[in-house]
TrEMBL record, chains A, B:
<protein>
    <recommendedName>
        <fullName>Alliinase C-terminal domain-containing protein</fullName>
    </recommendedName>
</protein>
<comment type="subunit">
    <text>Homodimer.</text>
</comment>
<dbReference type="Pfam" id="PF04864">
    <property type="entry name" value="Alliinase_C"/>
</dbReference>
<dbReference type="InterPro" id="IPR050478">
    <property type="entry name" value="Ethylene_sulfur-biosynth"/>
</dbReference>
<dbReference type="InterPro" id="IPR015424">
    <property type="entry name" value="PyrdxlP-dep_Trfase"/>
</dbReference>
<keyword id="KW-0663">Pyridoxal phosphate</keyword>
<comment type="similarity">
    <text>Belongs to the alliinase family.</text>
</comment>
<dbReference type="InterPro" id="IPR015422">
    <property type="entry name" value="PyrdxlP-dep_Trfase_small"/>
</dbReference>
<dbReference type="GO" id="GO:0008483">
    <property type="term" value="F:transaminase activity"/>
</dbReference>
<feature type="domain" description="Alliinase C-terminal">
    <location>
        <begin position="3"/>
        <end position="247"/>
    </location>
</feature>
<dbReference type="InterPro" id="IPR015421">
    <property type="entry name" value="PyrdxlP-dep_Trfase_major"/>
</dbReference>
<dbReference type="InterPro" id="IPR006948">
    <property type="entry name" value="Alliinase_C"/>
</dbReference>
<dbReference type="GO" id="GO:0006520">
    <property type="term" value="P:amino acid metabolic process"/>
</dbReference>
<dbReference type="GO" id="GO:0016846">
    <property type="term" value="F:carbon-sulfur lyase activity"/>
</dbReference>
């Protein structure tokens, strides 16, 4: 919006790591866990005049340990990656400063006169079901939504790591186990995306994936080297299995010396 | 959005009737039938460099005669006033220039990443039902949605005109009967809003309505004299009846010399 309307108020200043206009007011957006690599992030710009917006789209216990209570000044959440209802276009913000909260509400009113009622009704129902399921965590034996989702993610990550164990093409990030305040256990990080890094000899990871009929998103789109690419771990079950199959074909193919 | 982001591309230039920056490019928005007064409108700025956007939110046969096929370059429609599904936030545009259409699509993608799927599904269903009902207009006896709505609007307008027949406070616009291509008949204009004008002695129509416990919107909000006010004709049945009751109280009260 800033770019498309050539805003007189704001300007895109690029990567936060390289931002060094001392004393200038700024807004830093921290996506934690980070998309695409799933790591926990903190603000990186040093300066007193900035506002930091925490985007917690992926800060849910099926993906990552909840290591501390979210308590920042401006925090964004969405149902999108929490339950998969991205198409409902429902998010929410927790904001400490009343003036900022009012400005945000005004922006929503002006830009869209509010969010679809159908979506609001559905989101309220979905959140109700989630909360009901979580009330008895650790007390009742039945699996709540986050446990169910965590188990699903764990199975998928296991399949992926196994498929790439002997791969001569790709490596995967290793994530630390961390103590999760939600589950009360040390849990694995199971990101929503696989952040693949190609081994030597493959320069464009996404192009290489295309050759395997796997649709990813190249590192360049995330401001890094094309030896990286992002693949969704949230596809439908049969799509995910096909993705693993195609990765295995590559591994086997290379082992047999077939030129892919 | 233009104002809130201080756009470097566009600037609000005020009332189209007073716009006279010859040769400047401009965008004129024509709301026809007009909100609030229900009259048919055409572009008023003379100049070759302008784009005209027709907002046809109220161009539906329950409100107005469909006097000609809508055939402008850029036309906006919405389910909001067509069926009352304003909360679904669904509209559509018919645009002749492919480049403009693509820019509009891009804007929607950037500003909202698309519209709620729940709303899209509901809108598709609603539009399907409307179209099915209209297929046999004039052939089958059963009332389609637009006939049903037109009859409802006609009853409400009749009640309102009767309530104000002897009013010493308000007058109403008179609208011409026009030939409607949809119904094939000469039909009355039955706007979504009553555009009330106060008679001499009442300076602020909306304030006067407030005294009668009627919530309207004053003329100032529409750039005209406060002797005008807008009242929705689309409220729920019991609300509408209460509105008529309260208008009658005013008429009777004044007839009996009660100071309101």
């Amino acid at each position: 919006m800033i770019e498309i309307l050539r805003s007189g108020l704001y300007k895109w200043a690029g990567d936060a790591y390289t931002f060094n206009e001392d004393g200038q007011p700024y807004i830093e957006v921290v996506n934690s866990p980070n998309n695409p690599d799933g790591t926990h992030r903190e603000a990186v710009v040093n300066g007193g005049k900035g506002k930091v917006i925490y985007d917690f789209a992926y800060y849910w216990p099926q993906y990552t340990a909840i290591t501390s209570a979210a308590d920042h000044d401006i925090m964004l959440f969405t149902l999108s990656k929490c339950t998969g209802h991205a198409g409902s276009r429902i998010g929410w913000a927790l904001v400490k400063d009343k003036d900022i909260a009012e400005k945000m509400t005004e922006y929503i009113a002006i830009s869209s006169i509010g969010v679809s009622k159908e979506s609001q009704v559905r989101a309220a129902k979905v959140i109700g079901v989630l909360c009901d399921g979580c009330e008895n965590v650790g007390v009742v034996e039945s699996e709540n939504f986050f446990e169910f989702s965590r188990n699903l993610m764990a199975k998928r990550w296991q399949k992926l790591r196994e498929a790439l164990k002997h791969s001569e093409c790709f490596t995967l990030f290793k994530y630390p186990r961390e103590h999760c305040l939600f589950t009360g256990e040390f849990t694995k990080t199971l990101p929503a995306y696989a952040w693949l890094k190609c081994k030597e000899g493959i320069e464009d990871c996404n192009e290489f994936l295309s050759g395997l009929k796997i649709v990813g998103r190249g590192g360049k789109a995330f401001g890094v080297d094309p030896i990286f690419a992002r693949i969704s771990m949230l596809s439908k079950e049969d799509e995910f299995n096909q993705f693993i199959e195609r990765l295995l074909v590559a591994t086997r193919g290379l082992a047999m010396g077939i030129n892919l």
